[in-house]
Write the structure tokens for this entry.
Amino acid sequence: MGFESKPMALNTSQSRAVGAVLRLVEEAVEEIERLLIAPVTGITFHLTDDLRAEERCAIQAACERVRAALMQACNRLHPEVAHRSRRGAIRGEVSTLWAALEDTKSPALRGYGPLSPDAGRVVDEVLDNIAVDLIGILRLLAETRSSAVMQA
């Protein structure tokens, strides 16, 4: 029996659940593909470049097969498709990062053991410096949106 059978009827909750899992798979495949071509060194990380060229090719081919299977799954199951704006997605990323920075400041670090006042001050300062630009991104999104609304 072929894969061209009629779509399965899922209720709303089932459609959402299937859609959420398929989105996780799609996002993971995107991350795997990024890792295949990404620089091995960043500011806060170093990846050991331990994949041979033939392994990279095989992994890329597997990712392409997963994408094809995702497409087939969507065609057959018609899962709920997430609709988000870039603005909302960026806002969500920045908000998550800002919360993580706040949760890493000196009061939280004291939970891992004693922290000198100087170290605490430096940690808070550098995290606040990062947060300033993240909050700046949120402001840009808000200003751009309000400008677009005023022009409409």
Observations:
- The mean pLDDT is 91.
- Residues 86-151 form one domain.
